[in-house]
Amino acid sequence: MRYSGFRVIAEALTGHKGWKPVWRDPQPQAEYDYVIIGGGGHGLATAYYLAKEFKQARIAVLEKGYLGGGNVGRNTTIIRSNYLLDGNEPFYEFSLKLWEGLEQDFNYNAMVSQRGIMNLIHTDAQRDAFTRRGNGMILNGADAELLSRDQVRAMYPFLNFDNARFPIKGALTQKRGGTVRHDAVAWGYARGADSRGVDLIQQCEVTGLRIENGRIQGVETTRGFIGAKKVGVAVAGSSSKVMAHAGMRLPIESHVLQAFVSEGLKPLIDGVMTFGAGHFYVSQSDKGGLVFGGDIDGYNSYAQRGNLPVIEDVAEGGMALMPMIGRARLLRTWGGIMDMSMDGSPIIDKTHIEGLYFNGGWCYGGFKATPASGWCFAHLLAKDEPHKTATAYRFDRFMKGLMIDEKGQGATPNLH
Amino acid sequence: MIINHPILGPRDAQEFVYLGDANLINRPDGLTASPQEMHDYVYLRTNPAGEHRELWYHEQGDRSWLVVTRNTVTHEITKVELARDVARQMGRSK
């Protein structure tokens, strides 16, 4: 069923009796050509692009809980391609271009809103660094613009421009960045994949990987064994748990990141703003809530909930940037589990086991990557070679000294 | 989280800096270890969901290193030792 304005009107006039379930609830088959583990944004996007762009094949997505119940439904919905390094920027720009055409492509309203993202500058050194990053973005075909203090003030007069420690001196902005309705991304990809014959199997936890003679045979699940010629793992947050079934240790730690939303307010912030010096970033949802976040809690966790000290720290960041936020009440906080990698960048690669492929290590930046991650993982699964924008996301980059460390922190996952 | 320091008693986790897996104590000898061994030591983690032994540094306290046994699913701390004692039990001189 295609969605359109005409369709909505027609259904409204006929009592909304024509709508059908958006996807099937199939029983798992005995065998598939491709099994994708993980029914989140990346797994569903992988299945969608695999079915649409690459292969006519039998494809299944296995999900432990329900579709989109993990980080794709827990993030702060920001899209951008404002990276510096060559290993990253072409990939994220590819992703932003896919976002720009996504709704037409999968015929689903994901509320892609290119409202712009702004990274605030507080020192001359930071302006130099952001100028360099902006030039790196432009060289890779993205857009970037430096704003003066007065230009920032014209947009957001309520910011604390004369904070003694972090006075605002300007900003780097990417106008094509913005926000997306995150759940709708999962639903749109799920619907698109299902309509192309992909089996989306929920309540199906992978409990083991069957490997014989160095080759994947299939996956053991709570709903029985499912044979597969190729298995792709896209379970960021739980990557180490799933890959341990193949005897692999990963360059990844799992950490909890909290996010926050205030009560609904009148229109205040029309873009996305990041205050890196104070570890705070914020945008305003279409319902009016301020959606914001800060640092990860900093210790290994699979709990999907954080602790109070980080809530205090994030609130302090908000107060330093825009003191009137103290008048707003916090509505909800929640947590998601991040695959924190050793250099802050992801992995999309084959493993040493034939037919087993891995996608993970997204740190706290996986949402914006969803379309390109799916596309590039599908490319790797279908063609056995990396997509040209994802050639750097290899397992062996740590052995070879080819880290993609935007922040320059080294092998300290909790500091990326 | 409250970390029950073996010397100082219960302290707020905010006083500590987190490093990670307690196996980081066991750095291979840089002169004799193979590149693969050093790679595995520096970059790979077991990252379990459940009981995890990990290194915390009491930066805003007595500046001791602790080995904390903590559940990564519930955040419950079940054991706290001085890293010095753990290293000595493994036959290290300090």
Topology:
The complex is a heterodimer of chains A (about 425) and B (about 90).
Chain A: H1 5-13, E1 31-37, H2 41-54, E2 59-62, E3 78-79, H3 89-106, E4 117-121, H4 124-139, E5 145-148, H5 149-155, E6 170-174, E7 178-179, H6 182-195, E8 199-201, E9 206-212, E10 215-221, E11 224-233, H7 239-243, E12 252-264, E13 272-275, E14 280-284, E15 289-300, H8 308-321, E16 330-341, E17 347-350, E18 356-360, H9 370-383, H10 397-400
Parallel strand pairs in A: 1-2, 1-11, 2-8, 4-13, 11-18
Antiparallel strand pairs in A: 3-7, 4-6, 5-6, 9-10, 10-11, 12-15, 12-16, 13-14, 14-15, 17-18
Helix pairs in contact in A: 2-6, 2-9, 3-9
Chain B: E1 2-5, E2 9-12, E3 17-21, H1 35-43, E4 51-57, E5 65-71, E6 77-82, H2 83-89
Explained architecture:
The complex is a heterodimer of chains A (416) and B (94). Chain A folds into two domains: 25-77 and 182-251 and 343-415, FAD/NAD(P)-binding domain; 113-176 and 253-341, D-Amino Acid Oxidase, Chain A, domain 2 (2-Layer Sandwich), CATH 3.30.9. Chain A has ten helices and 18 strands. Chain A has helices spanning 5-13, 41-54, 89-106, 124-139, 149-155, 182-195, 239-243, 308-321, 370-383, 397-400; strands at 31-37, 59-62, 78-79, 117-121, 145-148, 170-174, 178-179, 199-201, 206-212, 215-221, 224-233, 252-264, 272-275, 280-284, 289-300, 330-341, 347-350, 356-360. In chain A, a hairpin with a 4-residue loop joins β14 and β15 (289-300). In chain A, α3 (89-106) packs across α9. Chain A starts with a helix and ends in a 16-residue tail after the last helix. Chain B has 94 residues and is α+β, with helices and mostly antiparallel strands. Chain B has two helices and six strands, in the order βββαβββα. In chain B, the strands form two sheets. Chain B has a four-stranded antiparallel sheet. Chain B has a two-stranded antiparallel sheet with strand order 1-2. In chain B, β1 and β2 (9-12) form a beta hairpin. Chain B is globular, with a radius of gyration of 14 Å. At the A-B interface, β12 and β15 of A face β3 and α1 of B.
